[in-house]
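Give me the fold.
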Amino acid sequence: MDTIDTLSLPIEPPQQATTLRQGLERYYQANPDFVRDQDLWVGIMCIPWCDMQRHDIMHVVTGYSTALEQELQLIGFLLTSLTWKRPWYYYAQSFVVFLELLWQSIQGKAWGGIYHNPVQVCQLYLKGVKQGFTVHKKIDAAIDPETVLDRDLASLRSEYGIHNAGAWD
């Protein structure tokens, strides 16, 4: 009987799990112009850095890219997956951004050179809303990012029941 010399077989290093911190670094490398580590002023409204970071974290955890189609899905997802106790502008972000994009679509305007008709805009947003209803556990809208940055992305997704859309890891 032939035997295999296991000492001569190459040993593959175990796959390292991607942490949220690593995924977030990839996200920022892919989007170097994004505001980072500082508050964002939109007109007279200030969005605190911690809230911007939470939004960015949700891009990484969900795997949604920053392409407009996936941004629409993300804001729909955040509407239904987060705990209901959250800053008022989280709601405004979801509703107002959706309505603004829908209005532009009705007027025939394209975003980034791509036109989406009003039905497509609604479908993308509702796809995210629907996904948000499927989470096993509501996401704390006020979560301290430091408590999850070194967690494995797969375990975070599993804990909350989040389907990975594929970007960042």
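The mean pLDDT is 87.
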